Amino acid sequence: MFRTRRRWLVAAFVLAITAIAYIDRVNLSIAAPVLTTEFHTNAAVMGLLLSSFTWTYTLLNLPAGMLVDRVRTRILYSAALLIWAVSSFLTTLAGSVAAMFGPRLLLGVGEAPFAPAAIRTLADWLPKSERGTGSSMFISGVALGTAVGPPGLAFLVSTYGWQSCFIASGTLSLLAAVIWYAWYRHPLEDSRLTGRERELIVADQEPPQQEGRAPWSAIIRHRDIWAITSGYFCLLYILYTFITWLPSYLVQDRGMTVLSSGFTTSIPWICAFVVGLLGGRISDVAVRRGMSSLDARKIVLVGGMVAALAILGTAFSASGAVAVLCLSVSTSGIIFSNGAVWAATTDIMRSLNLSGSATGFVNGLGNVGGILGPIVTGALVYATGSFVVPLVVAAGLALVGALAWAFGMRSAPTASVAGRPVAGMGDARSSAAGAGS
């Protein structure tokens, strides 16, 4: 079976690396309540620290995306994972909040190529008709890492101290780096890929519209890319608010212990993992039944952000169980939409050989929302003494994101090269695979 499904083994490995990436991100969130007490700091300062990873991550996403279109993902992914490991190990040496900023900024450097490399890998390995499912697998790794990370890391923090969770996540990253480098090959070079599966992959990919890569300005001029980026800004504001502040919310507003908050935090993300896989499947089925690729992705994008409005129930519910239920719906909606962001981006830019660069562009600008989410939330919690106002703000961003995708994206993807339109590229079929990794 696996001899004819190797592309799904690659997609599963991408999912696993994504889960590790988010375990590396959430480790600080789990340790935050302990660090706040041990280092005598407050929510506003902790918000800056929780956000600091996104500073370098966002700044370097654009160049990292361009790098992915030029360097093999086998090498780039392995190098990135090594940096994640070093960052986690260095964090254990910190003796103050200020000393933690350096390792977190380094983590942002290492994770900058992560999303572009994932999308480039999936673009190389999956035909268009399976791209939504592959992208949703990638994004479901976000939910998986954020689901399995908190309970395990919370146990380590409660039992062995906060340093232990960084040692564990660093070791995991190191192992993944070694395994990926030893195992992964580009589909045109993979001797374990059958000829039948290689033909299936190549036959349903967009044909390149020109030799080499299109001008990078093709990304900037594209209306749909800007619409995707606008909605993604809103999505990442909410996502990073949840990732960084959910454990502290459960401790402060719901009166849980660090250990119980770690287990409760996993509930919304377990739900999101399952729902996220469905999102890609839904859009792929719609594409196979004749719907234009962007219309199919738009259904998932808008539907997920509408579901994210359930965060209002968390803000105003007096019941802890109802609050967690609403969190689960909202988180599932975010992950449901997130995979379609990358399927749509690849649909638009694959034929111009700019999948990595376009991913870096969308992810880089979108992550400005990821920077602001933890900072604004920390400041509002510090000013108001609760999470009600920050959660209402997050709901407002969900509405804005849904509107941006509903009315900003056109029905059929188009792009231009040197002023000449390239229409319908999202529905093109191919006899050649993309170069690169």
TrEMBL record:
Main location: membrane
Gene3D superfamilies: MFS general substrate transporter like domains (1.20.1250.20)
Organism: Pseudonocardia alaniniphila
Subcellular location per the Swiss-Prot or TrEMBL entry: Cell membrane
Residues of the Major facilitator superfamily (MFS) profile domain: 10-413
Transmembrane segments: 41-63, 75-101, 160-183, 225-246, 266-287, 299-316, 322-345, 357-381, 387-407
UniProt xrefs under Pfam families: MFS_1 (PF07690)
Keyword match Transmembrane: yes
Protein's name according to its UniProt entry: MFS transporter
This protein's record includes keyword Zinc: no
Organism phylogeny: Bacteria, Bacillati, Actinomycetota, Actinomycetes, Pseudonocardiales
Top-level taxonomic group: Bacteria
Membrane topology label: Multi-pass membrane protein
Keyword vocabulary terms for this entry: Membrane, Transmembrane, Transmembrane helix
CDD domains on file: MFS_ExuT_GudP_like (cd17319)
